[in-house]
Structure formats: C-alpha cells, structure tokens
Amino acid sequence: MYYLFLILWATSVACQASEEIYQLLAKSHANQNLIVSPVSIETILSMVYMGAGGSTARELQSALRLPTEDKQAVTTKYGSLLNQLQGQEQVNGPTLKLANRIYVNDQFSLQQDYNLAVRGPFKAEAESISLVNGPAAAEGINQWVLSQTSGKIKDMIDPGSMSPDVKALLVNAIYFKGQWESKFDPDKTRSSTFQVSADKNVTVPMMVQMGTFRANYFRDLDAQVIELPYQNSNLSMTIFLPREVGGLSSLEEKIAGFARPLEAREVYVKLPRFKIEFRDELKETLEKLGIRELFTDNSDLSGLFGDKSGGKVSQVSHKAFLEVNEEGAEAAAATSVAVTNRAGFSMFFVADHPFAFVIRDANTIFFQGHLVSP
Description:
Layout: E1 3-8, E2 12-13, H1 16-28, E3 34-36, H2 38-49, H3 54-63, H4 71-87, E4 95-105, H5 112-119, E5 124-129, H6 134-148, E6 166-179, E7 190-197, E8 200-218, E9 223-229, E10 236-242, H7 248-254, E11 263-272, E12 274-281, H8 283-289, H9 302-305, E13 312-324, E14 328-340, E15 347-350, E16 355-360, E17 364-371
Parallel strand pairs: 1-6, 1-13, 4-5, 11-15
Antiparallel strand pairs: 1-14, 2-17, 3-17, 4-6, 6-14, 7-8, 8-9, 8-11, 9-10, 10-16, 12-13, 13-14, 16-17
Helix pairs in contact: 1-2, 1-8
C-alpha cells in the first residue's frame, strides 16, 4: 500500500464548487464556529486533477466545475490567481500569501510532465523526503506549513501518518493579515451579551465604532449586510447578520454568490472580538460533492508517477484559523489529502448573535465561515 497526501493552507475562489463545499460544511457544522478556505481545497484537488486520468479526471473536472477537459485551461486559471496574489501586495496593505509544495517519497519520482505542469502555474516545487523516519519527515513538513502561515497552523501532519507507504504529499498554504481601514478603538471595547441561541447567552468583549460603511438590510434575506474594508487594498470582510437569533442556517443557504449593491451610510457597528480554530476531515464532504472514484481502488492517478499504480486518495484534511480584533483580522488555513495504492444612525449593525462572514476581493473569496459563539 502506498499513500499520497495532499495538504492545503489556503483561500477560496468565488465559484460554484467552492460555494458547494462551503454549504456542505456549514450544514454539518451548523452548531459550531467555522472557518474554511474553499479555494485552498479547490487548488489542491485541481493539482490532483492535473495527474488524474480517465473517469477519475472526469469526476474531478465535473465536481470542481473546472473550465473544460483541457488541462491547459486549468493551469491558466490557477496561474492567473497566483500571479494576482503576488502582484497585489502594497505598502501598509494586507499580507496575503499562497504557496504550494509537493513532498515526494525518495523511493519514487514524479512524472516529468506532471512536475512541469504544476511547477509553473501552481508554483509547486517538488522536494524529495526520506520516510525511514516518519516523525522527522512530518516535523519538516509541519515547519514549512508553520512558516508559510506565520506560525498560525501548527501540527498539520500527524507524525504517525508518515509511513514508508506514503508516496507523496501535496501541500497548499495561505496566510492573510490585514488592518481595518477604520479601526475599532480598544478603549471603547466593553463586555456585553452575545446570544448564542434562544436559551443561551455568553459574555464577550464587544468592539464598537460609528462611521460610514457600505451596508444594507435585505428583506428577502431577512438580514443585515455590512462590508468592513481593509486598509490600502480592495479586500474586505463582509458580515451577514440574520435578524433572528436562530436564522443563521437558512441565511447561509441564501447568500451563495452574494452580489448585491450596498449603500454607503452612517452605521453604528458593534462586533465581538473573536478567534476561531477549526479542523475537519473532508472525504465525506467531497464524496457528497461527487468526488468518489478518487477514494477507491479504481482511481486513476497515473499522471503523477507515470504508471497505473498511481494510487488513491485516502484522506483529505483541512485546518484553518481566524482572529478578529480592533486592529483587523488574521487568518490561515491548511488542507491535506492522502492517496493510497489500490487496496441614530441610519443603521445599527449589532452582531450580538450568530452571523456569517467572508474575506474577499471583487473576484475571490479567501476565507469563509460563521460565528456561533465567540
């Protein structure tokens, strides 16, 4: 038995596949805090797709809504995304980094065509690792993840999982840190009640400010929406606050692909200071999305290693982090996949009960989640 692990720390492109992945996770984790980077998941699975063949490739192409069966179009899509991220760093602006890497068991070698296909557009360098000492290999990979996410994603790889059966590990990591264009004054932060549910309250630090923000109430959503921009960039956090305490689940079903006009207005904003850490195994979620053959002995990943025994995916893990405070927000995420061989103001925005949020620019959702209890 040989395994191929795929690991992501990432963001999320605004597309139908990303929305479906998030919707499935939001439903299965409706009662807990959630932060994910769907584009991280999508990016790493697209790297797998570049080495897949036959019905396995068609299944991935369909589930991920990839442009066409022409893999060149896929490399163009992700090459454009990574070039966009590299080109948007500004002085005093947010930090947004995305990185890919492939760790290969030194008993195997990647197919040259596959190596070239992912090295350019995905900027994924391949590194040979010895699995004679699995824990040492895991430590090296975990250190790379830690450095790429500025210390936020720790212990992504379980040392016990890095046996000599592992063929390769595909890794994607993303890190974000941005300051609010209009910061909250820490001196105005006060302890206040956050209503988790109809019969449960918690006391949390609530940040407050009054200013001009793009915001609106949408009757069909029965929710308020506000956009909190980050300094010196086109990135922002959009928050969706249902009117009813128990309205989060139904709201999240309605906001996929949200693209409504928001009006600049004077708003009194009250928002909890919070931190979310989340980890989940994604195999079941991806199977619901339609990615099934990839996890079976019929999987065709021959493009990775140049033979029909390319293996199957046995594990997909995602880990993410978000902290929101008076200064701004900091976020990071990671995902791994294992492949085995065959075998008075005009508006008051008081976020004192569960709400959803995205961190995005005009084209890409980098992080998405919901807060149930700070």
